[in-house]
Design goal:
- With 214 residues, the chain is mainly beta.
- The chain is 12% helix and 65% strand.
- It has one helix at residues 2-26; strands at 46-62, 67-69, 72-85, 90-107, 110-126, 131-148, 153-171, 176-192, 197-213.
- The radius of gyration is 36 Å and the shape is elongated.
- InterPro entries: Beta-barrel_OMP, OMP-like, OMP/PagP_B-barrel.
Amino acid sequence: MKKIICSGVAAVALLAAAPAFAADIAQPYPTKAPPMVVEPVFTWTGFYLGANAGYAWGSGESGAEIIGLDPSGFLGGGQIGVNYQFDNNVVLGAEADFQGSDIKDSYAGYESKMDYFGTVRARLGYAFGNVLPYVTGGLAWGHTELKDNYLGLSSDKTAVGWTVGGGVEYAFTNNWTVKAEYLYMDLGEDYYDSIGYKSGLTANVVRAGVNYKF
């Protein structure tokens, strides 16, 4: 009789504990929410290196009797620079470039050409996200040559002047940008000793380029 009573009590206890045990089994373990992915905010701050190509046309005066020359031609080269973007989206930078060129013209026995040039400029812009319009200006220099084909004389100089311009740059990834730019250059007037004449050169430069930002 005692065995029957004990068995009954055990059965009742087991039945009473079964729902709680089942609840423990069914209760899922707490899971962590996946981490939020924060997209990086693009900034123009950093160093960059790039290449460009374009076209230039200009005007100059040469000779004892002033001869107007209008040199023009293609150019290509590279640039290196740095930008810093402030909290108000103003971007301040500096850039130096070097260009190989075939800018030349001849008239009435005179020939003028510039076979390479470069600039060192400040840049100031305002960032609209990944679009950066800017103005620029600074020092310009170029290797120029003047020839008097009648006398068989030639003389070359490295002329130094100034440049101003502007452009717009677009970042299509966090590291790669493309740009279009216009510069006006004035290399002043120099005296060419071997020929005995003065010559001056101004030029308009349009070019497109690509940069890699570090």
